[in-house]
Amino acid sequence: MRTAIVSFYEAFPPVSGAASVTYNLAKFLSGERLLIQIGARSATSESSDGLRIITLGAASENRVFRAASLPHRISAIAREIVHFQPSRVILEGASWAVYHLMLLRAIRRIAPTLPIIYHAHNVEYLLRLARNGRAIAAITGRAEGRLLAQCDLATAVSEVDRTHFRELYNVSTALLPNGVDVDRLASVSSGDTDRIRRKYHVGESALIFSGLYAYPPNRAAVDFLRRDVMPRLTEHIPRAQLIVTGGEVPQAEPWLVSAGLVPYEDLPALLTACKVAAVPVFSGSGTRLKILEAMAAGVPVVATGKGAEGLGLRHRKHFLLANDKQEFVDAIAAIFETSSMAANLRKSAKQKVSAEFSWRRIVDDFEQAITRMSIEELPAELVSFAIPSH
User: What residues does CATH 3.40.50.2000 cover in the chain?
Assistant: First the structure.
């Protein structure tokens, strides 16, 4: 089996949630794998796990120039796909659906029988409606609907997103949930944790928020923690710190550590160096990888209902639910101050992630389902690649 995976962003090395999803899917697929991505500079490389990577350099950082060069880049991607001669193509849906629709049509022109899977990371129409207004959302919705209808198989990351796709476009999607590399996140040594504490100046009472700061829902979450949670929390726990990854936070506070874009190899130990993962996400769709990563690393999570949406988590068993500033302060303080609560949350959350959100198991089920059935049958049969809940 030869699989070409396409992303219109730099998925390797992964520095964002979308990149992590794309890279881990590619990492655990069987057979020969080629990742074609758009990055800062053109390059060809191979990861330590045997993933071949072709990076096509962006024409310019200027949006106008990049848009003008889009047909050329899509043609270049299609040529790389044909040269690789894959058994299937997976389009990574964490960028504008218009790009993927154009690419799908370009592939169809030169390889009309090649199976194409659209791996939707979220419902893009809803994201654009919240972030860019009705005009952009309308363009996105038209492209997204056609893309879902014209590919051989479309997947969604949660039952919530599947429902949205069905209601918006009358299209059935299979369930391919996001996951985490459980072994990597659960195997951090105490020496690695100590090294990362020194590197990032992490104290004994730290909470962490992981996610690209440039993404509006993440920026709103950081602002909420900075303005509404931390000033109150430090009244009770004076040495509390907020660690933020995913880009520089422009504000400075004595308790704020802006870690920037954390290298892929540093993230597991940085998570384990913290006592709580805070996820005050109030908008967006898809799956909050930051929650799954923290749970796999053994870090208790405090999150909004929106943040934990679609994961099947139980309040007080797998995480603590908090939907306003006082609830966040109380929940974080409770984990800091009650070791038995923290230990119980860690144990239950790790078991949940290992059983249901391991990339290795998710991808194995995904491939077995495709092997059992022809690609044409999959959308009608509505195969689920999720690990059953217990």
Answer: 2-179+358-381, 182-356
